[in-house]
Specification:
There is one protein chain. The chain is of the alpha+beta class. The protein contains 18 helices and 11 strands. A hairpin with a 5-residue loop joins β1 (about 65-70) and β2 (about 75-80). The N and C termini lie close together (about 10 Å).
Length: about 575
Amino acid sequence: MAVHRNIPDSAGWNVFHADPGFLDLLRVYLTDDMLERVLPHLERMGELVGGRLDELALTADKNPPTLTIRARNGAPDEKVTKHPAYVALEQVAFGDFGLAAMSHRPGVFGAPDKLPPMVKYALVYLFVQAEFGLCCPLSMTDSLTRTLVKFGAPDLVARYFDDLTSQDLETLAQGSMFMTEQVAGSDVGAIECTARLEDGVWKLYGDKWFCSNPDAALGMVLARPEGAGPGTKGLSLFLLPRHLPDGRRNAYRILRLKEKMGTRSMASGEIMLEGAEAYLVGEPNSGFKQMTDMINMSRLANGVRSAGLMRRSVNEALFVARNRTAFGSRLADLPLMRRQLAKMQVTAEQGRSMVFHTAKVLEAADAGDARSAKVLRILTPLIKFRTCRDARKVAGDAMEVRGGCGYIEEWSDARVLRDAHLGSIWEGTSNIVALDVARAARREGALAALADYLDDLQRETGAARMPAGLAETLKSALGFMDEVAQDRAREADVRQAASAVYNAASATVLSWENARIEERTNARSGARLALAGAVLRHKLLPRDPLRGGDDAAELATLLGEDTPATREAAE
């Protein structure tokens, strides 16, 4: 293999082809016909991400949006101006690939029906390896449409559906979610924004503190109707248009844009509602329950994005390690580096398997499967908690593998690391979502449903094709979570219990995937089984911190040379 003497640079590679395990997973989660339809688009996205999209994302990150309040003659002219690089990214995501439309209507990629969630998430998993910021408006538009269709009045859905699912940027109505207030961050029940029914029209008053995509055509807003009770039970859900049917600007102002650590390409701002007209969505005083559907979809999308960032980080780290020498050897041949790379690989593959498998569960839940709906209820906060936190660590380790250049903004590492931190904040911080796992277990029977579901996966896999001891460990992890969920005095253990369930569930899913891959190929694979074994041994079973271990064979399996090669070798 040719070895770079300059700093290895992966620019121009196809990130889909650089990730050979991806295609095996797609064969597990998609039908042959569906894979045949979407494969050219996945390959095209992989090519764009490794080239043009990455260049656009770097440019957009360095040129954040700006807010103007007045025209030069003093006339009111509030607008958010986006850099052309960001607009070009919008064209690819919303327009060329229809990522916000494909779950809601036929026609994307010529499909006669809506595409399954796995197609959307597979494409977003690739797209986010170039650009994270735009994925927020993309996710909110997608989830707002879902929530509107699910709970909104038919005439309201009919009024906005076509624009929400348009692939033409001139007619597209992007979505947003205005929930956070200064006094009500994670404590949603403390929301003070007021809704008043004036002459038969709902009008909103109040201050929304953190609003991403603030100039979106439509926003979902939680507000408390006058006279409604306290807490989340007094909240209602409203659809807030940026412009009224007669073309007038609605009565709310963007006060300023936030200067953020990450996702700099995308505007986030503060909103003042001054009697803005809005439409009630669903039943009064059921707003929080209805908004939860949108939040959960955003949480799953957050997990997909975090998994994608981990894949980008692992790909870059492997590329550097295999194409740079130090002390007379490739970095990838040095024992400590191999251990670091293997740990990154295990964590990244856990995240990918969990989000892809949850897409499978989501499809079943939307088709009416009651157990899948409960499983989805607990998998979503588990992913939001663990996958998003893991992305921060993996992105940091990848920066370290590149060394000093990883700390330079010309490369992807710094941007990926900054963006990775947002996943643990949006739609609930780690403590909040870990507590939500316990709440789902305690109140909604979701933990029992998950235990039953994972038991089925293990039966399908077979004991001979799972790491020894996994079944017992899974049972212990679920029992631990149940104990903690039922005893409020053990709240301090919630994160530990949630991590245990996530790790045991991911090892089960990895084993199941490996068995499915072997059945399709009629050959022994072992790659994902090795990953499952590593999760079990290194994240679940007790280890003596004062003793080392000979895991050279395990590392060799996890870091097989079938992943990113140099461009010279590829040629």
